[in-house]
Amino acid sequence: MTAVQLNAQNTKLWQDIGAIADSEQLMKRLAKYVAKLVKEKENSTLMSKEEFFAKIEKAEADFREGRTYAMLPGESFTDFRKRIGK
Fold first, then answer.
1. What 8-state DSSP symbol labels residue 22?
2. Of 7, 6, 34, 8, which is closest to residue 20 (Cα–Cα)?
3. Sign of the alpha-carbon torsion through 72, 76, 78, 82
4. Is this prediction's pTM over 0.70?
């Protein structure tokens, strides 16, 4: 996005916020949604539906090709991850 496009988008956003600023109910909804967006940005583990299914498909392909790992009896998950280098 260019600087001009970003500026135009910001201007439109502030105008739209100004248009609903007199409605307490709409401002509460906006604040709630903005808080949700901030949490999404802070949580790096979130992924899109497409990313999730791509990971599943890759794991299935790895399994079919024999690229798998197994935990040893009595091995902790932490030790397992260290052993396989992940």
1. T
2. 34
3. negative
4. no
